[in-house]
Amino acid sequence: MHLKVTVYSTPSCPWCRKVKQYFKSLGIPFKDVDVSKDPRKAEEMYRKSGQMGVPVVVIGNQVIVGFDKAKIDRILGIA
């Protein structure tokens, strides 16, 4: 199953780096959206997640706030 993965992040966020490294370690491509550089993308992230904290991960139509490895694995079918 191929799901579109988007990570909303900022360069200074350590958990953002960890979640992106996790996807890289799994060989899963993802779109990295730097919300610190684009207010429209920050608003998009807020509409999807209901909050302004990063990281926000969107896998398919599932929204994950923070680096919730168990939830990511479950959605990806690798739990």
UniProtKB/TrEMBL annotation:
One of its GO terms (biological process) is cell redox homeostasis. Pfam families: Glutaredoxin (PF00462). One of its GO terms (molecular function) is electron transfer activity. Residues 5-64 form the Glutaredoxin domain. This is Glutaredoxin. Belongs to the ArsC family. NCBIfam families: GlrX_YruB, Uxx_star. Gene3D superfamilies: Glutaredoxin (3.40.30.10). It comes from the Bacteria. It comes from Kosmotoga pacifica.
